[in-house]
Design goal:
Length: 272
Amino acid sequence: MLMEAHDFRDECDALYKLVKPIKQEEFERITLFRDWTINDVLQHLHFFNYVADLTLVDEDRFLRTYAELNAEREKSGSVTVATNEMLKGLRGPALLAAWHDFYQEMAERFYQADPKQRLKWVGPSMSARSSISARLMETWAHAQEIYDLLGVKRHNQDRIKSIAVMGMNTFGWTFKNRDEPIPATAPHVRLTAPSGAVWEWNAENGSEKIEGEAAEFCQVVTQTRNIADTALDVRGDIAGRWMEVAQCFAGPPRTPPAPGTRHAMNEGTGKV
C-alpha cells in the first residue's frame, strides 16, 4: 500500500478546510506568487492532479491531454490561461468541489498502486511513489500562498517528511540543473519535525551543515520562502549556495523569491 497517497489526501483536506469558508468573490484575490489568484492555484492543482492520475490509469490519454495543454500554452503564452481553457473556465466553489472530489478518488487509486510501477511524465518516468509524493509536494507548496494571503498560521504535520526527502534527493540535481559543478560534499542536515522528532541526513563533516525546522527547509526547497526569511542555521559555502537556489521540483532553474517578498499577510487573523 502507498501511504504517501493518504498523506497527499490529508494535505489536500487541510487546504480544502482552509478555502471552503471563503466567499465566491474571494477566489479572485491575488496571492504573492506570480499574481496568481486562488482560482489559479486551485485550477493548477486540479488539472495536474488529473494528468498525474491519467499516468496511472490511461497513459495514452495522458499523452494526448498534455499535448493539448502545450498547444493552449503556446497559443496564449500563459500556463494559467491554458489551464483555464483546459478546465473550460471552472472556477470558484464549483472548482473547489471538483478538486475535492477528484483528489479523494485519486488518492485511493494511488494507495492501491504498486509503489514501484513506472509512470510516464513530462520529463523522465517516475515511480508511483514518486508521482504521488510530487503531488503532495506541489499541493503543500501552492497552499502556502493561500495561507499567506488569508493570514492563517499553518500547522504542519509530519507528512511533510516526503517533501524534505525530495529536497535532499535533489541536492545534486539543483546544481546540475544550473550547469554548476555538483559538490563532492553534501551538507549534514538536521531538521526538527512538526511533532518534535529529529530527521537527519548525511554524515557530520564539521564545516557544512543545515539545521532548523523541517517546515522551513521544505519552504526553501519548494521556493515558497527565501532562505533569508527563515531561521535555518546554514553553515558552509556549499550549504549556503544550495539554500540560495534549492529547487526540488522539475523544470528549468527557477529563481527563488527575493527576500521579504513571500510572507504571511496579517498573520494570525484567521483560524483553521
